[in-house]
Amino acid sequence: MTTREIVKITRRGMITIPLGLRKKFNLKIGSSVALIEDEGKLTLIPLKDVEALREEFISKKEMAEIIDQTDKEEMELE
Amino acid sequence: MQIICIDTGVLSIYFSKDITKEVSDLIDKVKKGIVEAHILKPVLVEVFHHLCRVKGLDFAKTTIVSFMNQVPFKEIDLNTPLIIKAGTLKCQNPKKLSYIDCMCIAYALNMKIPLHTTEKTLNKLAGTNLQNLKTVKYSFID
Question: Would you call B19 and A45 a contact, using CB atoms and an 8 Å cutoff?
Fold first, then answer.
């Protein structure tokens, strides 16, 4: 499901996130999302426990290389 | 409560698979309210960029917003004294310090708080007040 979903806002300002999207983004009862305003759009960002994301992070060595690379690029731009 | 400033490198270790014990312990102290961490907003932009570069935009958004929601640090805006001191440092060390390094150093000096950093040579740089800079150093290597 990558297309748009239309939902209605209730009197109390609530919306229902369609089941397909809840499954896709692993949104369960009690999950938190952040609402971020972005150039006239309202973006919904699922929040996760940072520790649960840790396995998806890259290693310190790789991170240090990225930092070195971006530092060099920044200095070249200046 | 001790107040500290955290730079991009330390946060980048936090956002690594093999986080060091030192950084893990530091963030635990921040979560428990033992230490008050101040992070400049431009630092968050830089960390977001690093995450985005390797893991994509959606991952960077989720990671940064989750971090901001779960770790009770203080987000720091630029102000006039900070602009002047950071600009002065950049002027004195144009090829050795990035703009964000300058902002972090300037903030730590103005606030008289220690800068928790991965930079190794900050105290050897040009700048009249750098001898006053207190640093706590972290390494990407265990």
Answer: no
